[in-house]
Write a structure and sequence with these properties.
By secondary structure, the chain is mainly alpha-helical. It is built from five helices and no strands. The termini are far apart.
Length: 111
């Protein structure tokens, strides 16, 4: 019986933002959109809404709700995703404060 040859696996440490790691042009925005989309998904699921019902609340067609439910937020801006959360009865809070670093960062806190 042949023995298995084990190959060393190489890896890189993550920056903490998968979109930056894979080279997106605006990784902070993409990460924010992903978090907002996840919240929309969770709210729709927890309320037991159909995609058609969610579409009526959000003011979009069912196929667009389907895309959101599959984490496809590419067609929607951050502002539009925040509008969806508001339409679903949630508050969205944005806080701006100085940073001690040379470059600020986007922090996402989900309640």
């Amino acid at each position: 019986m042949a023995t298995k040859k084990h190959e060393r696996m190489t890896f890189e440490k993550s920056s903490g933002n998968v979109f930056a790691d894979i080279g997106f042009a605006n990784p902070e925005r993409e990460q924010l959109k992903a978090h907002l989309t996840l919240q929309i998904y969770r709210i729709i699921k927890s309320r037991g809404l159909t995609q058609a019902e969610a579409g009526a609340i959000l003011g979009i067609k069912q196929p667009h709700v389907s895309a959101l439910m599959r984490n496809r937020s590419g067609n929607f801006s951050v502002e539009r995703l925040m509008d969806f959360l508001i339409a679903l009865g949630h508050d969205v809070e944005i806080t701006v404060r100085p940073t001690r670093k040379a470059h600020g960062q986007v922090l996402i806190t989900l309640a």
